[in-house]
From TrEMBL:
Localization of this protein: Membrane
Protein name listed in UniProt: Phosphatidate cytidylyltransferase
Organism (species): Salmo trutta
Family as reported in the entry's similarity comment: Belongs to the CDS family.
Gene transcribed to yield this protein: LOC115200629
EC number of this enzyme: 2.7.7.41
Region (Disordered), start-end ranges: 1-59
Cross-referenced PANTHER family: PHOSPHATIDATE CYTIDYLYLTRANSFERASE, PHOSPHATIDATE CYTIDYLYLTRANSFERASE 1
Single biological process term from Gene Ontology: CDP-diacylglycerol biosynthetic process
Major site of localization recorded for this protein: membrane
One GO CC term on file: endoplasmic reticulum membrane
Amino acid sequence: MSELRMRGRTADPDSLSENKEAAGEDRLGLPGEAGGEGDGDRESIAGTPDVPPSTVDNTPQFLNKVVEGLNPRWKNWWIRGVLSLAMISGFFMVIYLGPTMLILVVMTIQIKCFQEIIDIGYRVYHSYELPWFRTLSWYFLICVNYFFYGETLAEYFGALVQREESLQFLVRYHRFISFTLYLAGFCMFVLSLVKKHYRLQFYMFAWTHVTLLIVVTQSHLVIQNLFEGMIWFIVPISIVICNDITAYLFGFFFGRTPLIKLSPKKTWEGFIGGFFGTLVCGFILAYLLAQFQYFVCPVEVNSKTNRFTADCEPSDIFVMQQYTFPFAVQNILTWKTVNLYPYQIHSVVLSTFASLIGPFGGFFASGFKRAFQIKDFADTIPGHGGIMDRFDCQYLMATFTHVYIASFIRGPNPSKVLQQLLVLQPEQQLSIFNTMRDRLRDRGILPPAAM
């Protein structure tokens, strides 16, 4: 790498001026730094730090024996298929275990994805021995999770917070505590700066924060979606999985036309087949889940049992309604009306995003991997790569779902308002009570006060 060669030629760094040091010793070797914009084509030779490829085959022995003798293409197909079925089965098992287990699984996946991306940075720049890089990265992860989950605790667990004095203190000063913790990490980073590695350390500081933005922020949105109702968690994740599977199958059997250079194996046939397969999958899954309160009701905490519950009167989007086809469609289908859950129409929007825009999360991840000349983020799952390889599209989908709910679905939630009221001081609660009583009397809902 260019920096190592430069360091080899400057045995006495103290004799260099600050300008020479900034321009030479602290050079990262990125494309275009040494020779201007025209050197971009040489990225694969000298512009990209080398990441040692993983040579570990972690495929279970029984699978290797079963697929022994097959050509590599079909061998990979069977391995991916068996492991996909295993992961889907595990996903349904976690759903059966309830919201608590789902939250723990999301947190575990988030930590693993963060580790995979940080490890790439550590492997790329390991030779520089940057002080405190990994320690500070994990510290910032803890700080950001403390902030997000503290916000969730205050928003959804108001009744529990009210009973615990220690929690009341943490919730009341939560943002100040979060900022103080982050500020401590910021000061630690500044104190760890080393003269020879200024630029590299700031690259790694940015690397960590972009990773936090991509992984932690969006995984928190997954949990926010879960609290809106299990259906808003299950359907988006399931249609992304369905899109991956159908696009892979159509591409495997019918793929001929390359789709994008970032992912040479992606084809137009797989992309289009995945689109229609995802629409059908999302529409059917929405119909099945919309019939059960357990999936459609917001996930709330029972203040008596301190457990998650999903018991409510389903909202209008989960009540079967009759729709009339336009006249032109009636002539073609010979149907005048159709009975649907409104959520099925929303599922079409989600499925469209998952199949047309969602794959760009995968393309983004492919570009990242090509930039550092690696095949996968890790080798955690045989035939699939790392956890991040499976969740690159999921995070983008979770963000869209959260924005979609906030823009078109979510209305005032009486339960959340009540939880917030319960945290207030008694005199504040009494003031709100009197105000609401007077307004209800003015509207004729309550009888007028006795004279």
